[in-house]
Write the structure tokens for this entry.
Amino acid sequence: MESLEKTVIDYIDNQTANYAILINGKWGSGKTFFWNKRLSRVIESKGKNAIYISLYGIKSIEELQRNLFLSTNPVLKKKESAIDLSTQLAKIALNTASFFGNALDKYEISIEPFLNIKDNFVLCFDDLERTSLNLSELFGFINILVEHESIKTIFIAAENELDQNEEYHKIKEKLIGKTISFIADSDTIVHQLIAPYRMIDDNYFKFLDQNLRFINEVFNKMEDRNLRTLNHAIADYFLIYKKLRDMGQAYLDYWAKRMLHFILALMSVVRAGKVKKDEALKIDSGSYFLAGFENEAPEKPFIMRFVNTYYKGLTENFTWSPTITEYIYTGYLDNERFLEETKLTDEGELTPVKKLTTKFEELSQEEFSSCTQTVLREIKEGIYDINSIPRIYSFFELFSQERLIDMRIPTLKRIFIQGIDNSIRVTEPKIEFEIHYHKRSASSQTYTQILDYAEKTYKEYKEKQIKSIVHEHLKRASYDPEGLFLLIRQKNNPKYGLDYSPIFKHVSAAQFVQLVTTLSQENLIALRSSILERYNFSNIKDYFAEDLPVLIKVSTKLFKKINGKKMTIRNYTIKKLIEVIENVESRLTK
């Protein structure tokens, strides 16, 4: 950035340089911020007037002339609202001869500043890649200023956005003599980015300032290192910080930095389009249990890519926040859910299991022994979510191998298997059991056995849960069909925890066909719409293959019901329902 400043100063001082220069950098890298905060001030320190004009949104050369005319005459710009300039400015061409003797309405406008425009002004045209102006006309107009009037001119652009524009590359060399790559000094720019908060909320500024190095570390992990995204995240986090501060010092001390980490990282992937809104909003806060395990499969789920990118070596600080996720997407912060999500225990969230899985080396021997005894007792009692049990076991296996506890692996295995059985009975699983979140490669045989048993147990639990839910809705469908339609339609309804699970495999085809014959015309149409919505995506075979046998029986039985019968409106509706089901069958067999 210092070398860029020197290059610009040398250009301004060079009286023979009758060309423009281009400052080139990625969109959001801080070019405009750098101009506003530093470069324009350096130029003004040389006795020049730094004039900034964004080309974005300017639709004609006449409009550009108007903006330029007003920007180089600040007195006139202040009176713009009181003056009708449209007719007069249409007649003004930017050359020195046109600046004499113009009177605009009742105001006499001094044109004197333009007599020395060559020496007094440095023009900056930003957003070249986003202009809707014809580039030949734009460059032709600016070339008059540069080549014939010797006015120093700087363009700011993300030139990679112009790579496909052949016209640009043909005419660029006629006007732009030097292209300077903008490489941001993130330490300096981030410091300037947080500076306004000193006047807004000094406590927030001090928090950001104390974590400046940390902010830079997260920022440097961002793929596009976009300062607009960073600025947006810091602005959004201001509300979160104030909420935590209002909740008390313990909350602030424990949550402030980790929530800042989360919002910086999430804002980056959201603004870069790396995660879909629906996918992000359905992730549960319990996902922090899964963060410590790397996935070796080539197709990593989003949450694992997210953790590996932004929490490498820091997984103990990772907690997914659904309320902040919703806040980023919608601007709405649910205060009650946020309070629940950030609820601390009397020990400031450092429960025995947290101590063992995040900082066991920092514990005294007495505290370590107490924590291990407590956690093993709680494992037996089944108070932990089934997703967390394999991870907790991995720590106890380490403790055993390193002789930190006097307990052998077979004994630990029995305790943790018992914990999995009791967990399903005592604690409703908080989130979907995702086997691919957990690390298998280089794992011990016992760890893999624990993991396999947890997955098997969860699947059996879920099958029973889904079967019970489906049967309950089928029983009630005669007087409450809307409940069944909702069950079919919302394939990932968190209320039921079905998450793209096959449900027709649990349906009796005969019972379902009997239900169809009792539905009203309106409900028949609603049923058809629900089935259409459920299977309305490309790779349904990956999720619903087990539904196929029952769907075939349903469509066959329905066809027998109307085959050879008079085509009434009702039979036509059933026929259309059959067509929808047969279409699903066809896609499930491909």
